[in-house]
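Appendix B. One record, verbatim.
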Amino acid sequence: MKILKKAKDNTFLIVVVAAYILMFILKPDMGVTSIKNSAYYIKEMLMIMPVIFVLTALLDTWIAKEKITKYLGKESKVKGIILSFVLGSISAGPIYAAFPMCVMLHKKGASVRNLVIILSSWAVIKVPMLLNEAKFLGIKFMAIRWVLTVIAIVVFSWITSKIVKDEDIVQKEEKASGLTLNRESCMGCTLCTKNYPEIFGMQGKKAYIKSFDSEIDKERLNQTILACPVSAIRYNE
């Protein structure tokens, strides 16, 4: 049963490994190339994602929820759309770096529509990319493509907001004794279990809150909360 549970928890990984094995059997050259490309992207993610997690945690601490709701929430309207385009366009790094940032923004009140705009802008109309596009394809091509892309993003963001509701992307949270642990955001770094093993444990690749009777050491808990790279732990007395 444990083996089946492990297999179920790692279905995606098993499918990927099986695909690589099949590729090596049918087309060895393609298999070698795929491994090299995968190694390159994994190395890139290991270099970029820790920085993104730290930056996300800092922004989560520094920026009040009221500000996010005001400027990127459902009532932000045109100013929210413009700000979302600006945020996505000036951001650096690959698109997967935007996902933890968007989780944090949504948690603080950003609307689905504005999240779609940020992600889409990050992916296809970043300023450095536009400059290179103008250099190689010409300013006219870049400008027309930019205008049409912006229009398409606005339309698709509106459609997405009508189909995807906030509750569809609400994070799974575990609560106990004033503690809240967002298991969806948890990246399995185990820092919480090392800093406060009496309260936090690991279940699979996610942290969980243990049953405990002892009084919470607030100073120690606060250090544990600050250590979490994705701000997955909260405490309300």
